[in-house]
């Protein structure tokens, strides 16, 4: 059906090219920020990756709602593909954030609102994927998974609000060179971030659609298995 | 629209899968109003799944299903108000007495005159002396009777029974037959599975034989078509 | 309207009758929570300053973990005897089943709190007997049962549900847990309503949102 080899996928080519441009801008073009030093360059990855994981949550919840409404398998496939890719982005976001925070804030982790929210949402989507693999097959699994997808997204603003309120009462312990001190970078920072965000968004889209195709093949295999086996014989 | 008066259950291309396992493969079926329909087939043929679908415990993946002309997905509560079911498990609270179990069902069903109703129903199935016993202390057969009592308490126009005679003694089977006969005479519908095929064919007005989630035979005259049904039943490898 | 309330109450009342007879849920929650509190009395140094600092966190972590264990039981028993199916066959809409089961669970958690909180006050030497505490306990119990009933119903067909339920439940109730801990902190430090108002508002918003959403969404999860 599809004779074009996977590496010629236009999305893959485009996101590779954009990623190359982004890497050039991040490591060669943009000057080093003087307050934080080279470590500041992590932000050019961290911010776009965080955006990707948020996009993941958004796609999971939107396609979960569409699945509950339309009961069409494709929305369920899109939800699970997006959850898996989003969770990968989420893990990278947490790790890159910690690597950056240690020298800049002086701590690996702190109770800052965005961090708490990100971590808890990460756990909710881990639970979402675990649920899918534990539950016996059938449409009930898909319906319940969609419910979890919606609940996670609805909970996100409340978690953020609570985490924000919490961090006001417990100011984060930050000892390193202050992160938010006026940056020595002006418009360059914006350009690099924009480019990098573009590249990672495209990577996200490519990964989700690749996973979606695999998911569809998996479903086809299940259908074939069902059609060819005669129950009762074994 | 006149059809809705004579067709109790109408299934069109009903499919239910559990992953790679097919439970129902494109079932087309019309079950007429007012009569006893028995579902026959070997284990795993889809009888119980079909009953669970009619009871709205299992959601179909695709196809159409109407009960008394009402569409299943849209008018759930009004369909269920006229459905009674005694399925494989007794569905009773072990730590409550028979009376408490029936009382709970009656209040969920919003039935009036609960006390007299419970006594009358218990009398019909022959458990009126056991009303104060905890369900846990009852034998399997008695639990089946309580389950049956719960299913018929609100006199539903559609009664679904999954192997109702299992665990019952001879006298109780007669009581069961009387209840079913009473249902038939009131132009209500009974759909049941059975593993005692001879007995089933005696009381049935319609017979459906299932195999691997397909309907392989539908008979509206089980007495004269008895041998054809028996052949179909034997061909699916079920033990008689 | 009265019909609806009667059905909800019938379901909750049935759970209460069963609970009085076999004491599954409340004993599980209370026993587990008390054990956590007892372990903390020697796991950390409970001088007066420390108790005020860590006490509220320990209390609500104990209740959250204990609550999730109890909620597991509350739905598992309906599955073991297939009685959930009897509820599903009944001509009531699914949201009433949800509200009835939630009401039962709310009463169980509240009962457990009535035993756990005085014990906490004694073990940690903190004064918590104020009206504010009643409000905190109420909003938390409502939220726990609203979310817990939904997730317990989702997890019943999973064999590893003892693992799955906490993994779903605890992250989602984090805002509520923060609200309970922070308000209790204000309370043990002699704070006023005004100081904990924003937390209580947050908790109430959480409760309302999850009751409404869960009731709406419940019809999607019960049938197989």
What's a concise summary of this model?
Chain A contains six helices and no strands.
Describe it for me?
The complex is a heterotrimer of chains A (234), B (240) and C (224). Chain A is 75% helix and 0% strand. By secondary structure, chain A is mainly alpha-helical. Chain A has one domain (14-32, 41-229). Chain B is an alpha/beta fold and 240 residues long. Chain B has two domains: 2-82 and 157-238, P-loop containing nucleotide triphosphate hydrolases (Rossmann fold, 3-Layer(aba) Sandwich), CATH 3.40.50.300; 93-155, no CATH class. Chain B has nine helices and ten strands. In chain B, the strands form two sheets. Chain B has a six-stranded mixed beta sheet with strand order 6-7-8-3-9-10, sandwiched between helices. In chain B, strands 2-1-4-5 form a four-stranded antiparallel beta sheet. In chain B, helix 5 crosses helix 6 (140-152). The longest helix of chain B has 16 residues, at 170-185. Chain C has 224 residues and is mainly alpha-helical. Chain C has one domain. Chain C has helices at 2-22, 24-43, 48-80, 83-89, 94-124, 131-155, 161-172, 174-188, 193-217. Chain C is globular and about 55 Å long. Classes of the chains: A mainly alpha (234), B alpha/beta (240), C mainly alpha (224).
């Amino acid at each position: 059906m599809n004779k074009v080899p996977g590496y010629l996928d236009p999305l893959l080519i485009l996101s590779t090219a954009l990623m190359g441009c982004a890497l050039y801008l991040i490591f060669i073009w943009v000057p080093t920020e003087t307050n934080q030093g080279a470590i500041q360059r992590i932000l050019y990855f961290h911010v776009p990756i965080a955006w990707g994981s948020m996009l993941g949550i958004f796609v999971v919840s939107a396609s979960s709602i569409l699945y509950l409404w339309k009961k069409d398998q494709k929305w369920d496939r899109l939800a699970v593909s997006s959850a898996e890719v989003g969770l990968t982005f989420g893990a990278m976001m947490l790790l890159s954030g910690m690597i950056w925070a240690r020298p800049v804030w002086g701590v690996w982790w702190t109770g800052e609102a965005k961090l708490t929210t990100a971590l808890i949402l990460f756990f909710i989507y881990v639970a979402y994927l675990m649920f899918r693999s534990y539950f016996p097959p059938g449409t009930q699994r898909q319906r319940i998974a969609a419910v979890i997808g919606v609940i996670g997204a609805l909970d996100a603003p409340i978690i953020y609000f609570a985490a924000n309120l919490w961090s006001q009462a417990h100011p984060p312990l930050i000892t390193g060179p202050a992160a938010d001190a006026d940056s020595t970078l002006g418009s360059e920072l914006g350009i690099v971030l924009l480019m990098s965000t573009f590249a990672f968004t495209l990577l996200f889209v490519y990964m989700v659609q690749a996973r979606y195709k695999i998911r569809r093949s998996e479903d086809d295999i299940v259908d074939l298995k069902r059609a060819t086996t005669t129950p009762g014989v074994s | 629209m006149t059809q809705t008066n004579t067709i109790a259950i109408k299934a069109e291309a009903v499919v239910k899968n559990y992953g790679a396992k097919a439970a129902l493969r494109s079932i087309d079926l019309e079950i007429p109003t007012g009569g006893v329909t028995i579902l026959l087939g070997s284990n795993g043929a889809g009888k119980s799944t079909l009953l669970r679908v009619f009871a709205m415990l299992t959601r179909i993946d695709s196809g159409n299903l109407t009960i008394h002309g009402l569409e299943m997905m849209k008018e759930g509560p009004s369909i269920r108000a006229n459905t009674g079911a005694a399925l494989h498990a007794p569905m009773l609270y072990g730590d409550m007495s028979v009376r408490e179990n029936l009382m709970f069902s009656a209040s969920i069903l919003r039935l009036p005159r609960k006390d007299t109703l419970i006594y009358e129903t218990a009398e019909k199935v022959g458990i009126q002396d056991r009303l104060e016993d905890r369900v846990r202390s009852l034998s399997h057969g008695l639990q089946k009777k309580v389950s049956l009592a719960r299913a018929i308490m609100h006199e539903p126009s559609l009664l679904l029974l999954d192997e109702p005679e299992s665990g019952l003694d001879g006298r109780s089977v007669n009581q069961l037959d009387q209840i079913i006969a009473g249902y038939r005479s009131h132009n209500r519908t009974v759909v049941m599975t059975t593993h005692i095929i001879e007995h089933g064919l005696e009381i049935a007005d319609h017979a459906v034989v299932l195999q691997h989630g397909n309907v392989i035979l539908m008979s509206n005259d089980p007495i004269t078509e008895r041998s054809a049904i028996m052949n179909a039943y034997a061909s699916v490898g079920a033990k008689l | 309207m009265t019909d609806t309330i009667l059905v909800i109450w019938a379901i909750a009342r049935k759970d209460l009758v069963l609970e009085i007879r076999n004491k599954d849920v409340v004993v599980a929650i209370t026993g587990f929570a008390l054990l956590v509190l007892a372990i903390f009395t020697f796991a950390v140094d409970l001088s007066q300053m420390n108790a005020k600092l860590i006490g509220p966190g320990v209390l609500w972590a104990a209740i959250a973990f204990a609550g999730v264990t109890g909620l597991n039981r509350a739905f598992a028993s309906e599955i073991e005897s297939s009685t959930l199916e009897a509820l599903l066959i009944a001509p009531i809409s699914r949201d009433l089943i949800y509200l009835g089961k939630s009401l039962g669970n709310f009463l169980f958690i509240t009962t457990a709190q009535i035993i756990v909180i005085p014990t906490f006050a004694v073990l940690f030497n903190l004064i918590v007997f104020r009206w504010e505490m009643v409000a905190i306990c109420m909003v938390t119990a409502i939220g726990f049962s609203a979310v817990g009933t939904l997730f317990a119903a989702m997890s019943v067909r999973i064999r590893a549900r003892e693992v799955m339920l906490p993994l779903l439940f605890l992250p989602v109730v984090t805002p509520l847990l923060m609200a309970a801990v922070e308000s209790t902190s204000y309370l043990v430090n002699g704070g006023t309503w005004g100081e904990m108002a924003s937390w209580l508002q947050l908790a109430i918003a959480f409760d309302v949102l999850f009751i409404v959403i869960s009731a709406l969404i419940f019809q999607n999860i019960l049938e197989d």
